[in-house]
Structures are given as structure tokens and as C-alpha cells.
Amino acid sequence: MPPSPTAVLDRSAALEWYRKNRARSAEIFDVIDEGAYYSRPIALRNPIVFYEGHLPGFSVNTLIKKGLGRAGVDARLEDIFARGIDPDDEQSAAPRGNVTTWPARVEVRRFADACDALVERALCEDAVEREGAPVLDRAEGVFTLLEHEALHHETLLYMWHRLDLRDKLRPAGDEPVTGVDAPTPSQVLVPAGTATLGARRGAMPFGWDNEFEEHRVEVAAFEIDVYDVTNAAFLEFVEGGGYGDPRWWNDADLSWLERERVRHPMFWERHDGTWYWRGQFTLVPLPLAWPVYVTYAEAAAFARWRGRRLPSEAEFHRAAYGTPSGDERTHPWGDARPDTTRGRFDFSGWDPVPVGSFPAGVSAWGLHDLVGNGWEWTSTVFAPFPGFRPSPSYPEYSADFFDGQHYVLKGASPVTARELIRRSFRNWFRPQYPYVYATFRCVRSLD
Known about the structure:
alpha+beta
């Protein structure tokens, strides 16, 4: 069937991307010991088995069943593996559908292979881009399943990070970059100006529904940290009693601290009086120059302690993409495509590196690491932009989280796929969720 006159899909590129995603998924699952397959390293998420079925199952549910209107592979498994969970607390963290017995791994893999065959055949032969068809218009269903799997690679690694180190096979060449002195904290002034948030429909092949519609926001002048807050800086807060001082926390966060006995970042451990970073495969003496990974609640408390605050989403955009001339860049460094000289992203490593390691990635204002090395918390509650419309291929993707209980993150982490690095992309998590590769920087208003 000939492509529509507005075709945006390159079939060969889509097939290559799909196969790359599936290969990366296999590599990620191969890292864990077989004995951990049914474990639940994060109690607020499903056990590991769910995700090996969810990734191919979601692709079939989205493109084959919803998009093309055809039968899938196994209706029972497609239902079991349909959606993940994001509960308020562990007590409500039951899998959707009340699954009591998960399938054997051989059954999950047989299901995945059959799903892959269906999806690959569709990408090669079927009318997966069809003007006017809700899930197929501009090949939305294809891009949805491709980016969905890329997104899950990162969330899987959040889970793997909580596994016992003995339950994972450390890859060759995994050597954390440590021993660098943390830079002296500094700030720069970003003058008042306009920030463009979101994207214009039709201006790019694909975007998630929460990225639309493009709009502009006037931003007052502010002062912002040149570097993300480092472990060295956060250590001062920890050892200065910051977790025990109620002045820096709201009531909900104080209850969380007490309930979970939180006294330091989730990625830190203390052994025999020495602080360590819990890496993906090994404990590392706390790298003082690395960005600290914390919850929104911890980031906001530190900012208050410093007499500052977290940036809004609009301020982040102004700092990351604005310029003194008033123009806006595609990326902090300009219009060049993301590559390994610009930042720590696209699975370039399992852990962060010292802040300021990528001078080729600085913004027009001289800010480092705005994309890569850790997502950055903003003070903006995740909500729809004006003109929001749920995506036909995945209508609940954003809408289920417009609940006032999630905050926007921008940028990227070391394991964020290159395909997700675009100005309009938005991430979001609950303020007390501690497992994200998320850092922050502080701002100060100048009015």
C-alpha cells in the first residue's frame, strides 16, 4: 500500500529501532540472576516477570489489536501484561487484574517471541500509517510502542538498582569515574525573557500528548546554579542535621521521613562510619563531584535550607534553551544532534559522572548538564498544557497522572535513550518516590 501524502514513518528505521529496543531489553534482563526473576525490588512496582511480558505485550495491544483491529497472541497474557502500577503506598500496590500466580519464564519468553513476530510483520507489510485512523494517523501507534519500550529501559534499571548486588552480573568495562573534586558552587543570572514550552502539533513526527500544545511563558529574571547540586554539597545538609530539622520540610514530608526512617538519600549507604554510593553493580566511596540523586521532597528541603527554591518548568526552559539574543535553541548547546560529547545519556554508563564533565553541552548562559547525568526536578506540578488532547494510542498515558501528586522533571539521565532527548519531553514522578535518577539545582528570584 503506498504511503499517505503526509507520511512521517520510515519503515526500515522503525524496524531497526524496534529490534534495537528488543535487543537492549534482552541485555537488561540478562543482567539479573535467574533467581531474582519473580522478586519485587521496588514494592511500589510489579515483580520483574511482569515487565518482560509487558514490553512486547504493550506493542501488540497498541498496534496490532487497537491499531489494526486484529487478534493478538494470547488474550489472557495480553491482559495480565497490559499496564503497570503507580500506587500511593505499598498497601495499595496490587497488580492490575489481581494476578496471584505469574507465568513461568519459558511461557513469558514464548509469548514475547510471538509478539515480536506479529509486530515486525506489521512494520514490514501492514498499513501502520493511515491518515484519519486514530491510532495509525502519522503512525502514532508505531512511535508510541517504540518510545514506550525505550522509556521502560530506564525504569527497569531503577528496579535493578535496588536488587542485591549479588543478584546482578557486572558487565565488563563498568568502571565508575570517581576521585574528582567537586566544583565550587556558583550561580549565574538569567535575565527576564520568554520560554517556549511544549511542541506544535505536526512540527515533529511524534510527541506524547502532554507535550502539546506549544505556548510561551514570560519568565522573570532569576539566579540559578551553574552545576547540579553535588553529593559534596548535599553532605553538608545531611551532616548539618537537615533531615532532623522540621523547618525545611512540609508536614507530608515529615510524615514520610518518620514512616520510612529516611535520613539520607536512597543512593547513599553508610558502613563503618564511611559514606558510599550504591552503584548499579558496586558500592563506591561517595563520589563528591557526582550529582546527588534525591526525591523532590529532599531537593525542596535542601533548597529551603540554602534560602532558595527549585526552578519552575518555565525557568528550566529559559535556562536550558534561552539565549541572550532572545532566540531559543533546540538543545542547551544549540541545534546539533545529541552525541556523547554533549552529556551523559543514551546508556553511556550505568552511573553518573562528575558534574561539568561535558563543556560542549553547556547552555548559552554557561550552565552544565542540563540534559544528561540525571533528570532535574522542577517545582511545577504535572498538568496538561492548553490544548491538551489524550493520545488515541495511549489515552491514559498522561491523563491518569494529572492528579496534583506528580512533579515535572526535565533533562535526561545516564540511561535515557537518545530518541527521548527533545526540548518538549516531560517526565514526572511523585514527590517522595526515591528511586529515580533525579538531581536538581536551585534558583533565587530577583524581584
